[in-house]
């Protein structure tokens, strides 16, 4: 069994830069993708997150969301010879509108999976109606009351729940109380699909713009947790990880808890395999080749 992971660009969103990284260039617009991922090579294909429902949900907050035909779930699945009916399980890193907005495209016979804490938080209203809309939250509640349509993980940081052999989930927190990481055992090491644990690897992890301490990440501009909780979640996501896959930036190659390579070409290439280290462009740093070989 060789598990592979492929990126899915569900759409590009233009927003204020400071919404991604705290205090970064307020008033300056930047465009970022929203990535989901397809896991193949196991007992069944698994889809991670489903993207946004429509552009109108973003317009209410002054954001512009672009989605082309090539960004549809159907198009991405077709690149791997799959159809919507082949997806029996959808796993959510969390259920903000840009991650769960197309759940409705899947029948109730498809099981949507998320942490119980995330559903509780979505229904709490703490982040207002923007990140968890009434439409998406009500859809999840309908699934909750339909036999087999929703699976709730009770991970609390002390254990992981297995999906299929080689794929498990653990509580990551950081972004929202119920955010989870999907951990995939690949031939070249552990891949961590970490959702919005970070938004911009360059300004948060590679060259943190606000922090001076070594290995100290800069936090995002959009989170429901404390500063310390977010920093700890980022550090844990890097620990023991070979490939870090977040939702709004290109995949990262990790060695010794640091980002040592990027795969920018994966964002708009649904056939890309992000679990092959040779596909990554290495960052220009002294002794980097030795670090890669040692890992």
Automatic annotation (TrEMBL):
Residues in Metallo-beta-lactamase domain copies: 33-248
UniProt keyword Ion transport, yes or no: no
Keyword annotations: Hydrolase, Metal-binding, Zinc
Molecular-function GO terms, alphabetical: hydrolase activity; metal ion binding
Domain of life assignment: Bacteria
Similarity comment text for this entry: Belongs to the metallo-beta-lactamase superfamily.
Protein name (database record): Glyoxylase-like metal-dependent hydrolase (Beta-lactamase superfamily II)
Species of the source: Neorhizobium alkalisoli
Lineage, opening ranks: Bacteria, Pseudomonadati, Pseudomonadota, Alphaproteobacteria, Hyphomicrobiales
């Amino acid at each position: 069994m060789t598990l592979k992971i492929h990126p899915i660009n569900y759409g590009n969103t233009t927003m204020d830069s400071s919404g991604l990284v705290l205090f970064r260039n307020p008033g300056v617009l930047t465009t970022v993708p929203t990535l989901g991922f397809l896991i193949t090579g196991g007992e069944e294909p698994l889809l991670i997150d489903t993207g946004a429902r429509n552009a109108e949900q973003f317009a209410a907050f002054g954001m512009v969301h672009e989605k082309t035909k090539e960004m549809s779930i159907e198009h991405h699945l077709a690149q791997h010879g799959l159809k919507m009916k082949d997806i029996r399980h959808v796993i959510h890193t969390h259920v903000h509108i840009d991650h769960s907005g197309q759940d409705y495209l899947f029948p109730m016979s498809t099981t949507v999976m998320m942490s119980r804490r995330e559903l509780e938080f979505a229904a709490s209203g703490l982040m207002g109606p923007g990140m968890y809309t009434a439409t998406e939250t009500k859809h999840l509640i309908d699934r909750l009351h339909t036999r087999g349509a929703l699976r709730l993980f009770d991970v609390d940081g002390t254990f992981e729940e297995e999906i299929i052999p080689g794929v498990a989930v653990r509580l990551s927190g950081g972004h929202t109380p119920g955010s989870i990481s999907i951990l995939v055992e690949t031939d070249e090491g552990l891949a961590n699909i970490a959702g919005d644990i970070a938004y911009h690897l360059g300004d948060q992890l590679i060259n943190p713009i606000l922090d001076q301490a070594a290995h100290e990440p800069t936090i995002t501009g959009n989170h429901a947790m404390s500063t310390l909780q977010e920093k700890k979640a980022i550090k844990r996501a890097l620990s023991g990880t070979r490939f870090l896959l977040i939702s709004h930036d290109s995949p990262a190659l990790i060695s010794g808890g640091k980002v040592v390579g990027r795969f920018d070409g994966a964002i708009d290439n649904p056939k890309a395999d992000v679990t092959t280290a040779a596909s990554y462009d290495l960052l220009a740093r002294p002794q980097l080749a030795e670090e890669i070989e040692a890992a």
